[in-house]
């Protein structure tokens, strides 16, 4: 079953399958959460003639984040929860390359999926480039990339790019009604705003239950918060738990709400853009510094309040 927005990608892929020569490198580009990885797995199975009921296939090799270090690798091997590395390491690419020195297991072809390719370390990218320049016989590469510009230009130039579009607001609302019928209007609206056209991100936001947080953020921007009461409520709605994925989602939501304000800011949005940049900085720092959730909520609220004031001044 094709995911929303994948029709053109499938048409391009299937046209290549029936062509005279299949390109050995494919770059699947688009916003995180639009289904690129799902497409890669389904397309690889179709290419190798593997049905959805056939289980894992030895000639579909997926390379993604590995354990952070040897201690985390030991936890993985013992079946325990383990922490992932922040990027794909050169050792992982070289391990795959050693496997490529042998013939495919069950036929004449195999597919290597790298997800996300734009999170490869520089040395890993350079190692992969050698395989793209001289691909082993019967081997095809599918590179999933949320930010293709982060890839080496020489890697991009050796791949055929397929772009995956974002999904419009109305269609997103329909999807959430179907896939998350328990979500109320506020939660759906928050998810749609923060996801910026990514169905996967929208579903993640619904699961994080950020409807109340979104309502408070919008009130702060629109009404201001002279007595800090709304900021206190926002901190309470965010909670005191050091839940990094949820806190990152909160920051994404704040940026999305502020971005809406920038679009309507008139001829001089500089102060709003500056405030947005501060939210971007907080988003980048949160995973490293592990800010106290309550203080982070107050900081976000203050930035949104400043944005509301800047927007009012800009509109006269």
TrEMBL record:
It comes from the Bacteria. SUPFAM superfamilies: P-loop containing nucleoside triphosphate hydrolases. This is AAA family ATPase. It comes from Qipengyuania gelatinilytica.
């Amino acid at each position: 079953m094709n995911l929303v927005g994948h029709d053109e990608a499938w048409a391009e892929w299937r046209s290549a399958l029936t062509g005279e020569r299949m390109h050995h490198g494919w770059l699947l580009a688009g916003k995180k959460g639009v289904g690129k990885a799902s497409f890669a797995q389904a397309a690889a199975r179709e290419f190798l003639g593997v049905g959805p009921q056939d289980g894992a296939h030895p000639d579909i090799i997926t390379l993604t984040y590995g354990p952070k270090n040897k201690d985390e690798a030991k936890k993985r091997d013992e079946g325990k929860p383990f922490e992932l590395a922040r990027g794909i390491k050169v050792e992982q690419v070289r391990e795959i390359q050693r496997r490529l020195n042998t013939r495919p297991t069950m036929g004449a072809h195999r597919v290597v999926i790298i997800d996300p390719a734009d999170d490869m370390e520089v040395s890993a990218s350079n190692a992969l480039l050698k395989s793209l320049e001289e691909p082993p016989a019967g081997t095809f590469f599918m590179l999933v990339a949320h930010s293709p510009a982060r890839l080496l230009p020489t890697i991009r130039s050796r791949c055929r790019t397929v772009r995956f579009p974002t999904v419009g607001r109305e269609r997103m609302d329909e999807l959430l009604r179907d896939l998350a019928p328990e979500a109320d209007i506020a939660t759906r609206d928050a998810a749609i705003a923060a996801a910026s056209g990514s169905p996967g991100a929208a579903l993640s936001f619904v699961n994080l239950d950020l409807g109340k947080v979104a309502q408070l953020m919008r009130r702060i921007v629109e009404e201001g918060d002279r007595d800090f009461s709304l900021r206190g409520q926002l901190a309470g709605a965010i909670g005191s738990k050091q839940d990094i994925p949820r806190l990152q989602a909160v920051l994404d939501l704040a940026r999305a709400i502020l971005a809406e304000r920038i679009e309507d800011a008139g001829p001089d949005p500089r102060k709003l853009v500056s405030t947005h940049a501060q939210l971007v900085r907080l988003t980048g720092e949160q995973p490293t510094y592990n800010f106290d959730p309550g203080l982070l909520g107050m900081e976000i609220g203050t930035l949104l309040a400043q944005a509301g004031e800047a927007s009012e001044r800009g509109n006269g």
